[in-house]
Design brief:
Blueprint (H helix, E strand, L loop, with lengths): L2 H8 L16 H11 L4 E5 L2 E4 H18 L7 E5 L5 H11 L3 E5 L5 H11 L1 E7 L3 H7 L7 E5 L7 H14 L12 E2 H9 L13 E6 L9 E5 H15 L9 E4 L6 H13 L3 E4 L6 H5 L13
Parallel strand pairs: 1-11, 3-4, 3-5, 4-8, 5-6, 6-7, 10-11
Antiparallel strand pairs: 1-2, 8-9
Helix pairs in contact: 2-3, 3-4, 3-8, 5-6, 9-10
């Protein structure tokens, strides 16, 4: 698309081309308005689970409450998130943001050396990691400043019975979860359950507060954390929306998300632009499996990438 021509056609000479950067004060503001406006709409789906915007609001609130009441983490502290495209990803990310924490997106396929560098470089004090690669975390965490580890399993956002059966199949039948032992680690379902019983205190988030430390690929050296403020992310969202207003119907779109949410493109699109538009984001955990990709919506657990 020729963006300059697009704007010339859409906004003739003399028509302002600015966007209202004061529409939202932060990504938390974007999130809270979206979950209220589209409460009963599906927000994120994967591995047989669908979270509505109301579910996303409730579960992220529970995660934030747990962080506030059951840990010593404070606004501005860093929390690393290491998992593929699963419904618990937005729960954890927005829960962390609602508690005032800075999200450190981490590639699930990182080596131990890469993990250690990123965790230390970012100053991460907490880690949410998929059980499939927790054996690497077991070896790396003692070499870092991480004090709190939360383990999630593939089917954690499914109903309790389905969750138990699917997670057991992944671990014992598919043999996709290497043995690990991380003393003091918490399981995400227990964290969310405990958080539901705690008080959540909203945190004032300013535009210039850092929202995410987004690490580069490290192709010219070690990966470097780009500091993205809430204002950065909101500005990106608001600048893209005018180009979509003629084609995207708010609260009605279904968006396939094969690109990993821990990369900035999909993070901005699916956890920002499409969330603000009330879209249903269908997450693809393993886009390398083309038959499974095409055969969605029931993305089977054996289609998960081998970690």
């Amino acid at each position: 698309m020729d963006f300059e021509q697009f704007y010339q056609d859409k906004y003739p000479a003399g028509v302002p081309r600015e966007v209202d950067l004061d529409k939202y004060q932060s990504m938390v503001d974007v999130f809270e308005q979206a979950v209220k406006k589209y409460a009963d709409r599906p927000a994120f789906s994967a591995v047989g689970a669908t979270l509505t915007y109301r579910d996303l609001d409730t579960q992220s609130r529970n995660f934030a409450a747990w962080l506030q009441n059951k840990t010593d983490l404070k606004p501005g502290d860093r929390i690393a998130v290491q998992m593929p495209n699963l419904p618990q990803y937005p729960v954890v990310v927005f829960g962390a943001m609602r508690a005032g924490l800075i999200v450190v997106n981490t590639n699930p396929l990182y080596t131990q050396r890469e993990m250690e560098h990123q965790f230390n470089d970012s100053g991460a004090k907490a880690l949410v990691v998929l059980a499939n690669m927790a054996d690497n975390a077991e070896k790396v965490v003692p070499q870092t400043g991480i004090e709190h580890v939360i383990i999630t399993e593939i089917a954690d956002m499914n109903s309790p019975i389905k969750r138990t059966l699917m997670n057991a199949a992944v671990k014992h039948l598919k043999k996709m979860v290497p043995a690990f032992n991380i003393p003091g680690a918490h399981k995400l379902p227990a964290v969310l359950g405990a958080g539901a019983r705690e008080k959540f205190t909203p945190v004032e988030t300013k535009k210039d507060d850092i929202a995410v430390l987004q690490y580069t690929g490290g192709t010219t050296g070690v990966a470097k954390g780009a500091m993205l403020t809430h204002s950065n992310l909101v500005a990106n969202l608001l600048q893209v929306r005018p180009m979509m207003e003629d084609t995207v119907e708010e609260g009605k779109e279904v968006v396939i998300a094969p690109l990993p949410l821990y990369h900035i493109y999909s993070f901005t699109l699916n956890c920002g632009i499409m969330l603000e538009a009330g879209a249903h984001n269908v997450l693809i955990p393993n886009p390398r499996d083309i038959p499974g990709f095409v055969g969605y919506p029931e993305f089977l657990v054996d289609k998960m990438p081998k970690m």
